[in-house]
Structure formats: C-alpha cells, structure tokens
Amino acid sequence: MSHKIEKTEAEWKALLAQKGAEPVAFEVTRHAATERPHTGKYDDHWQAGTYACVCCGAKLFDSSTKFDAGCGWPSFSQAADPAAIEEHVDRTLGMQRTETLCAACGAHLGHVFEDGPAPTGLRYCMNSASLDFKPK
Fold first, then answer.
1. How much is the pTM?
2. Which residue in the list 53, 56, 102, 125 is annotated as catalytic?
C-alpha cells in the first residue's frame, strides 16, 4: 500500500529518535507491536488538546473524545477526521480485529472496536507510543 509519506526503516528510526519518541515507538508504528496495558504515557492523560501521529504529525484525535475504557490504552470515541485513519482486517493472535493506521504515513496506531460510548459506539484503542500530544 502506498501512503503520502514513505520512508525507509532507517529513516523512520532516525526521525522517531530525533523527536524523542518512546523507545517502543518504532516497533509499534512500523511493525504493529503493542505496548503493554497501563504502561503508555497517555493512558491516564486528560489534558485538553489534540493527539497526532508520532511519525508524521497528522491530527488523529481530539481530547474531547477521549474516555476511560479501563482497557489500559488511550481510548477515543471518534477520529478527528475519519479520512485520517485507515482500517484493515487484522487476523493475528487467532482472532479478527480492525487495525487502525495513519492514512498519511501508514503507522500502526492500534485497533477500533464496536464497544464504545454513544453516539458512535466506537472505541479507538490506541498505543500511546504511536501518538504525540499537542496541548490547546
């Protein structure tokens, strides 16, 4: 799949290091790893602002849609712009889930589930390591 922003693995590693991203950010965003629950810096983070892709800076979520799902990862009820997130079927780990990716650069963000609050009923369960917070 082709994205607007494409880099080699070495370029992504260098960019994330330059940004001071979490050590696990490269594995999460470029190889679809998952951080352990309740370990991400945005799990219990409630400041007003926006959450962007740590790799390319694309705006993904607004803090007004963040909620405590109790799952151990930052959860949002909707994307800031639906076009900012791509969804793909993920059949790893012996189950079927919906993987979410940054539409601009292809970074793995997490998964979306249909057990969130009204009115969307969605729970975007994201890895903190894939996000960069920008306060209002």
1. 0.94
2. 125
